[in-house]
C-alpha cells in the first residue's frame, strides 16, 4: 500500500510525521506523495482540509486519516500517544472505509470564460468587500428570497461544526447527505426580508445564488479564498463524490461533538 503524510509544519507535527513515515516504511509500505492509497494528516482540522484539497482529484483512490497534535479535532481524531497503535492498524490493511458527503460548488461567470468547479469538505462562504451581498436565492429552480447582508455560508454535514456553527446553524450528522445554508447578518426590516433560519436541503434540492449587482465577491472553499468579479451565479448541491475515511475503531460523531464543545474533560 502507498501512503503520504501531510504535516502542519510545526516541530511536534513534523516529528510525528517522521516517526509514522519510518515505521510504515519498516512495515514495507511505500511512501508516495503523488498517488497515495492513504493520506495521513498530522496537525489539526485545518491540516486535514489541506490534505483533502491536495488529493481532491483522486477521492476514489485515496482514503484519509488525521492525527491531531493540538486540541481534539473532528477530522483529526487520533492522538500522538496512539501513533504506534495506528501504525500497526494501517500495516494490517485492508482498512474499513466510512464515507462523508461533500458540497459541489460551481461558479458561473457572466462572460464566456470558463466556469470554476470545486468540492468543499466544510463549506463555501460568499462575502464581498463592496457593501452588502445582494443576491437572489433559488431552491430547486424556484425563487426563494432575495438576500441582503454580510454573506452566506453553505456547509456540508461535517462542516456544520465549523463556520456554520458559529453562524447559528444546526449540527448535522454526516450520515445525512445534505447541505445547510446559513445567513451572515441579513438585513431584515420593512423593506428587506429573509427567512432568518438556517435551511437544510436534501440531496435532490440544489440551490442557485444569483447576484443582483456587479460586485466582486470573496468566495471561500474551506480554507481557500478567491476574489471573483462578473459572477453570473453560484450553484451549490450535495456532490456525487464523497470523502473516504480510513476507520480502525469507532469514534461516534456525537461523542466528538460532546468532547469538542460540551465536555469539561481534556
Ligand atoms: P482557522 O481560522 O485557522 O481555524 C478555524 C478553526 O476551525 C480551527 O480551530 C479548526 O480546527 C476548526 N475547524 C476546521 N474544520 C472544522 C470542523 N469541521 N469542525 C469543527 N471545527 C473545525 O482556519 P483553517 O484552519 O484554515 O480552517 C478553515 C475553516 O475555518 C473553514 O472551513 C471554516 O469552517 C472555519 N472558519 C470558522 C470561522 C468561525 O468559526 N467564526 C470563521 C471563518 C472560518 P483546528 O484548530 O483543529 O485546525
TrEMBL record:
InterPro entries: ATP-NAD_kinase_N (IPR017438), ATP-NAD_kinase_PpnK-typ_C (IPR017437), NAD/diacylglycerol_kinase_sf (IPR016064), NADK (IPR002504). Its EC number is 2.7.1.23. Its cofactor is a divalent metal cation. The keyword DNA-binding does not apply. Its main location: cytoplasm. Gene3D superfamilies: Probable inorganic polyphosphate/atp-NAD kinase, domain 1, Probable inorganic polyphosphate/atp-NAD kinase, domain 2. It comes from the Bacteria. Coiled coil: none annotated. It catalyses: NAD(+) + ATP = ADP + NADP(+) + H(+). One of its GO terms (biological process) is NAD+ metabolic process. It holds the Pfam family NAD_kinase_C. GO terms for molecular function: ATP binding; metal ion binding; NAD binding; NAD+ kinase activity. It is found in: Cytoplasm. NAD(+) binds at residues 45-46, 122-123, 148, 150, 185. One of its GO terms (cellular component) is cytoplasm. The active site is at 45 (proton acceptor). Keywords: ATP-binding, Cytoplasm, Kinase, NAD, NADP, Nucleotide-binding, Transferase. HAMAP family: NAD_kinase. Involved in the regulation of the intracellular balance of NAD and NADP, and is a key enzyme in the biosynthesis of NADP. Catalyzes specifically the phosphorylation on 2'-hydroxyl of the adenosine moiety of NAD to yield NADP. This is NAD kinase.
Amino acid at each position: 500500500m502507498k501512503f503520504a503524510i501531510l504535516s502542519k509544519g510545526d516541530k511536534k507535527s513534523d516529528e510525528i510525521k517522521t516517526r509514522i513515515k519510518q515505521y510504515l516504511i519498516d512495515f514495507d509500505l511505500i511512501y508516495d506523495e503523488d498517488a497515495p492509497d492513504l493520506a495521513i494528516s498530522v496537525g489539526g482540522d485545518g491540516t486535514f482540509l489541506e490534505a483533502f484539497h491536495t488529493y481532491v482529484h483522486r477521492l476514489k483512490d485515496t482514503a484519509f486519516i488525521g492525527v491531531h497534535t493540538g486540541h481534539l479535532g473532528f477530522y483529526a481524531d487520533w492522538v500522538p500517544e496512539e501513533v504506534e497503535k495506528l501504525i500497526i492498524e494501517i500495516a494490517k490493511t485492508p482498512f474499513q472505509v466510512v464515507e462523508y458527503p461533500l458540497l459541489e460548488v460551481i461558479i458561473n461567470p457572466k462572460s464566456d470564460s470558463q466556469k470554476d468547479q470545486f468540492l468543499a469538505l466544510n463549506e463555501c462562504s460568499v462575502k464581498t468587500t463592496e457593501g452588502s451581498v445582494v443576491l437572489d436565492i433559488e431552491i430547486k429552480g424556484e425563487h426563494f428570497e432575495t438576500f441582503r447582508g454580510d454573506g452566506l455560508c453553505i456547509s456540508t454535514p461535517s462542516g456544520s461544526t465549523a463556520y456554520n456553527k458559529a453562524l447559528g446553524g444546526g449540527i448535522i450528522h454526516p450520515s445525512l447527505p445534505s447541505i445547510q445554508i446559513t445567513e451572515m447578518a441579513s438585513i431584515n426590516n420593512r423593506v428587506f426580508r429573509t427567512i432568518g433560519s438556517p435551511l437544510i436541503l436534501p440531496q435532490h434540492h440544489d440551490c442557485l445564488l444569483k447576484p443582483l449587482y456587479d460586485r466582486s465577491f470573496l468566495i471561500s472553499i474551506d480554507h481557500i479564498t478567491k476574489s471573483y468579479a462578473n459572477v453570473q451565479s453560484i450553484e451549490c448541491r450535495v456532490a456525487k463524490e464523497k470523502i473516504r475515511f480510513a476507520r480502525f475503531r469507532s469514534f461516534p460523531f456525537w461523542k466528538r461533538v460532546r468532547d469538542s464543545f460540551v465536555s469539561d474533560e481534556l
